[in-house]
Task: inverse folding
């Protein structure tokens, strides 16, 4: 699951949590504001756990579809690829590989027949 963590979002959330903590510890903040800010911290933590878990589930779904000889569509930065065993793609960890191409498995979707 840690392979799917977006470290940029994690860093921004960490900075936001530090800022919220500074506001809570600051002078003159009310109990209601403190509870609201603590709720935001909890939301950020849960979000940072949910997004990688969701990506991991998507990757597992795509692996199973690939192993069952289904075709997948993967969109890279500037190209779209059809992925299947028939086209000599293979899986290595959480990536589809063919020749020099490497595509993250969780960024694909199953093509409905």
Result:
């Amino acid at each position: 699951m840690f392979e799917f963590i977006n470290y940029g979002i994690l860093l921004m959330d960490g900075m936001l949590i530090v800022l919220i903590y500074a506001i809570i510890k600051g002078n003159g903040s009310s109990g209601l504001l403190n509870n609201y800010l603590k709720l935001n911290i909890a939301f950020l933590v849960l979000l940072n756990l949910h997004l990688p878990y969701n990506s991991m589930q998507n990757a597992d779904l795509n692996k199973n579809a690939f192993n069952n000889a289904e075709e997948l569509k993967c969109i890279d930065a500037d190209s779209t690829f059809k992925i299947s065993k028939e086209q000599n793609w293979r899986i290595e960890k959480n990536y589809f590989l063919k020749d020099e191409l490497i595509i993250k498995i969780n960024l694909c979707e199953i093509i409905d027949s």
Observations:
- The beta strands are 72-75, 80-83, 90-92, 95-98, 101-104, 108-110.
- DSSP finds two helices and six strands in the chain.
